[in-house]
Amino acid sequence: MRSSAARHGAARAQLLLGRIAKGWRYEQQLRRIAAALQPLTLPIIWLLLQWLALLVAGQAMLPRQLIKIVASLITAWVAIRLTATLVRDRTWSRFVAIAAWTIAALNILNLLEPASELLDGIALTLGSLRISALIVIKAALSLAVLLWLAAMAGRLLERPHHHAAEPDAVAAGCCSASVSRSSSPSSPWSSR
User: Fold this and answer.
1) Phi, psi of 132 (to 5 degrees)
2) Does residue 190 lie in a domain region?
3) Where does residue 23 rank: exposed (0-12), middle (13-18), buried (19+ CB within 10 A)?
4) Do 125 and 96 belong together in one domain?
């Protein structure tokens, strides 16, 4: 029952993604995201069904630890697969995958909070400034994400400017060629 509902939902989601991307200014980027999401539609539907089952089990006071572990694993897998597909650089892609799997594993085993406290406990104090390992890791991750976003924004902003400059250059080349042809008396196109 769940499998056929997930497959039906995945097919409808793929059609919706294709329709959304048509005719938009950033159609190429949306198509790339849609192409990255296309193989993930079935796992995303499964993920939504797992989270729904988790909510129902919680309301019915049923044991739900196994469903929570499965939902967490699927969430991690979908997030890692999506980012690995969207990040073009292989090094960044691996970095994101390792960081995401580490966080997911710690979260699933309920060790994320103790690990955060441990990393926060490893600190260096310089006067009134306290620098912990957790702060350094968060700063490095924030810097990596911001650099990636800046590079992505730069590529997006560069593309329209690059394409907009080409028609002007072609038009200028055509106009200068036609002016030079009409002003040259030895040109085969001149009227004699």
Assistant:
1) -105, 165
2) no
3) exposed
4) no
Burial code (b: 16+ CB inside 10 Å, e: under 16) for 100-134 equals beeebeeebeeeeeeeeeebeeeeeeeeeeeebeb
As a whole number of angstroms, the distance between CA 182 and CA 187 comes to: 8
- Kindly state the helix (H) or strand (E) to which residue 90 belongs, with its residue range: helix 90-108
- Say how many CA atoms lie within 13 Å of 172 toward its Cβ: 5
Looking at the fold, whether 41 and 63 belong to one and the same domain comes out as yes
| Domains contained in the chain, number | 2
Q: Is 124 helix (H, G, I), strand (E, B) or coil?
A: strand
| pLDDT tens digits in sequence order for the chain, 192 residues long | 555 666 666 667 666 766 665 666 666 767 777 777 777 778 888 888 888 988 898 888 888 888 888 888 888 888 888 877 777 778 878 887 888 888 888 888 889 999 999 999 999 999 999 999 999 999 998 998 898 788 878 888 886 554 445 554 444 444 444 444 444 444 444 444
**Terminal C-alpha separation, the chain:** 84
Listed residues 110, 127, 161: the one ending a domain: 110
